[in-house]
Design goal:
Blueprint lengths: L5 E4 H6 L2 H11 L6 H18 L6 E8 L4 E9 L2 E8 L7 H17 L7 E8 L9 H5 L5 E3 L4 H6 L11 H5 L9 H9 L4 H4 L3 H24 L2 E8 L5 H15 L6 E4 L2 H21 L6 H11 E3 H9 L9 E5 L7 H12 L8 H10 L5 E6 L13 H11 L4 E5 L1 H4 L7 H10 L1 E3 L3 E2 L11 H9 L3 H11 L5 E4 L2 H11 L6 E5 L19 H6 L14 E2 L1 H4 L4 E7 L4 E4 L2 E8 L2 E4 L3 H14 L3 E8 L13 H13 L2 E2 L2
Helix pairs in contact: 2-3, 8-11, 8-12, 10-11, 12-13, 20-21
């Protein structure tokens, strides 16, 4: 993505003719449909800024790229020690809320992800050309809780308010050449890839980008070879926590979709809320993009395309139960493939839901069988994760390998080298030996570099130590992250919500999340049994009561796994609580708590809290209620021990 359409010193800009500037902008602009409308807006901006910057020195940019958001900010103006992020609303007579959020979002994005802007002063400026004069408190603007507001006549005066001419000027060359290292949410990444952006443009780490690109190259090579040689192939991709396995899978599916539409590449996930949110996000984005391009597409038509690209793995399975024909898809990417069901679990489902007796396949075996129906070639890509299992009946990688060994020995297997080097994936030495002999180890199929949120690279380590009651280790890690990733605790839900609202800037998303087993938070207005609409909760704006912003509907670990928000309130119930030195595992049935005794179910519950405590990109507040004297299901000891433990680790209490 070209960094900007036009970039010159303010002195050169003032000397350039309007037609020359307009010519450069037009030549860089790919959208021809809106050309006249856009040209008129640019003409107005050029004339206004020439008048308002005539006494200034610095640098000016038009249409500066914000790749993570797939957007461009109208202007960046650098004067002395300040970077002004300017968004024009030509013809507007007021400072609209959406426009204020938009320019704050651009500013925060640069501050967080553009290396040259990390330690610079960035000032968001909204220019509504026909608006009244308005003076915003300087502190609100500097803290990015609001924007400097200006009309077309007082831009110069607005900018001068923030400039300190005694400060050291910004090094323009360094700033321009600084690396942009974004960490998009999976929703933002999906939208950007779907619109045609390259994975290099939307991922943060240089080495991470190389890693993702090499993985894509390896898989593309396997697919092309399968096509030319009429082979059936399967790839197993692994990755460190936060390495972006889902991003890698989406990237492959998009690349194959662009390479050859006849492959009908599809991204499959068993995570229902993730599928629903991504589909809706892509649908909305396509409708919006079409509108911006002067075209029109119905939401229904956009949804058909998005729904064929991202599918629920169980729906894919059920569709192929109805027919023995080969599916239209030649390339399928399975996200979290280790969660596919065991033979017992699938047999139970088939009997209860489909009326099919004695179904004799595990889900991995059936899914390979479906792709094996093709007479010529097909490729399966399995993304393998671990450590966050929250559901019973998950088959694991072992079942995929066993299915290949026992039923599909002619398939070509390409696997991450980590599968044999680590005990996290395969337990059986016999299975390892067979895979080593039959398959091909590929270092490129392991994503070794984290591309996780810039604020939370160490968060997963902290939560791991916290949940494993490694108190001193947890203390040490938290002391390292707290400056950049605040975590606070409170016993007052209203205070927790107030803290969230104060932290969020622009359109940063806040939300209330809790364990699906947190049944006794209901007296406090947190009802985990009240099912949310995930697309509404994750995608709708702050004016919609169904959105996460309202802090009314609560998302459980099942709703939020694989997704993220910026700031979270984690509501912690007595189902998982600290009792002196150990966690106690509880399940609420009827009118009382029952002990969870099976180790596997204990692990599911601990992992549910692990998921909840790693969903916030920028920080969180943990709400632990006080017990009740009149409610036997909410005794103080179910809450006080956990609160005490979190304080001992170093979390600060807000009153």
């Amino acid at each position: 993505m070209q960094r900007s359409y036009y970039s010159k010193s303010i002195k050169e800009y003032l000397l350039d003719s309007e037609s020359s500037i307009l010519g450069e902008l037009t030549a860089s602009h790919s959208n021809r449909t809106l050309e006249e409308l856009q040209k008129n807006a640019w003409r107005k901006q050029i004339l206004i800024l020439k008048e308002q910057l005539k006494d200034s020195e610095g640098q000016i940019y038009f249409e500066f790229a914000i790749p993570r958001m797939g957007k461009r900010v109208d202007n960046i103006v650098i004067i002395n020690d300040i970077i002004f992020v300017i968004e024009f609303k030509v013809g507007n007579g007021g400072y609209e809320k959406y426009a204020i959020e938009q320019v704050i979002d651009y500013t925060i994005d640069l501050k967080n992800f553009h290396e040259g802007s990390h330690h610079s002063k960035l000032i968001p400026v909204l220019v509504a050309t026909n608006a009244e004069n308005y003076t915003e408190p300087i502190s609100n603007v500097i803290n990015h809780h609001s924007v400097a507001k200006s009309n077309q006549f007082n831009i110069a005066d607005t900018l001068k308010t923030f400039i300190n001419y005694n400060s050291k000027p910004i090094n323009i060359e360094y700033w321009e050449n600084s690396i942009y290292k974004p960490t998009p949410t999976i929703v933002e990444a999906a939208q950007a890839l779907y619109k045609g952006h390259n994975v290099k443009e939307i991922t943060r780490s240089d080495s991470g980008t190389i890693n993702l690109s090499k993985t894509a190259e390896c898989i593309n090579s396997v697919i092309e070879n399968s096509k030319s040689e009429n082979l059936k192939s399967i790839c197993f991709v692994t990755g460190v926590p936060g390495a972006g396995k889902t991003l890698a899978g989406l990237n492959i599916a998009v690349e194959r979709m662009k390479a050859d539409e006849d492959e009908h590449a599809v991204f499959l996930s068993g995570n229902g809320p993730l599928v629903d949110v991504l589909r809706e996000a892509l649908t909305r984005e396509e409708v919006l993009t079409a509108k911006e391009n002067g075209d029109k597409i119905t939401k229904k038509k956009a949804a058909i395309k998005a729904n064929s690209f991202i599918q629920n793995i169980h729906h894919f399975r059920n569709d192929n139960l109805l027919s023995k024909k080969a599916p239209i898809e030649k390339v399928v990417v399975f996200d979290e493939a280790q969660r596919a069901w065991t033979k017992h679990e699938l047999n139970s489902f088939m009997k209860k839901k489909k009326g099919v007796e004695n179904f004799d396949m595990s889900e991995p075996e059936f899914l390979i069988d479906v792709m094996n129906r093709h007479s010529n070639w097909s490729t399966i890509v399995c993304l393998i994760g671990g450590g966050q299992e929250i559901n019973k009946g998950e088959a694991g990688l072992e079942e995929w390998i066993s299915s290949l060994r026992n039923h599909f020995p002619n398939w070509n297997i390409h696997y991450s080298n980590l599968i044999l080097e680590s005990d996290n994936y395969l337990k059986s030495e016999d299975t390892k030996d067979w895979l080593k002999e039959k398959g091909k180890s590929e270092t490129e199929l392991h994503l070794a570099v984290s591309v996780r949120s810039f604020r939370s690279e160490k968060l997963s380590s902290f939560i791991h130590e916290l949940l494993n009651i490694q108190t001193e280790n947890a203390k040490t890690i938290y002391s390292e992250i707290k400056e950049h990733y605040p975590i606070v605790i409170t016993r007052n839900l209203d205070k927790a919500k107030e803290w969230l609202r104060n932290q969020a800037k622009g359109s940063e998303r806040i939300g209330l999340i809790s364990s699906s087993g947190a049944r006794r938070l209901r007296p406090l207005g947190i009802d985990v049994k009240n099912k949310i609409s995930a697309p509404d909760w994750f995608l709708n704006n702050s004016q919609d009561i169904r959105s996460s912003y309202f802090l009314e509907d609560v998302a459980s670990e099942f709703d939020i796994q694989g997704l993220e928000i910026d700031w979270a309130c984690v509501a912690w119930d007595g189902n998982f609580h600290m009792n002196n030195t150990d966690w106690k595992y509880k399940n609420f049935k009827g009118t009382k708590w029952q002990n969870i005794n099976q180790e596997i179910n204990k692990e599911y519950l601990k992992n549910a809290y692990r998921v909840l405590l790693t969903r916030a990109r920028q920080g969180m507040v943990i709400f632990i209620p006080k017990g009740s004297n009149i409610d036997h299901t909410r005794p103080s000891e179910f809450y006080d021990g956990t609160f005490k433990y979190l304080k001992e680790v170093g979390l600060e209490e807000i009153e």
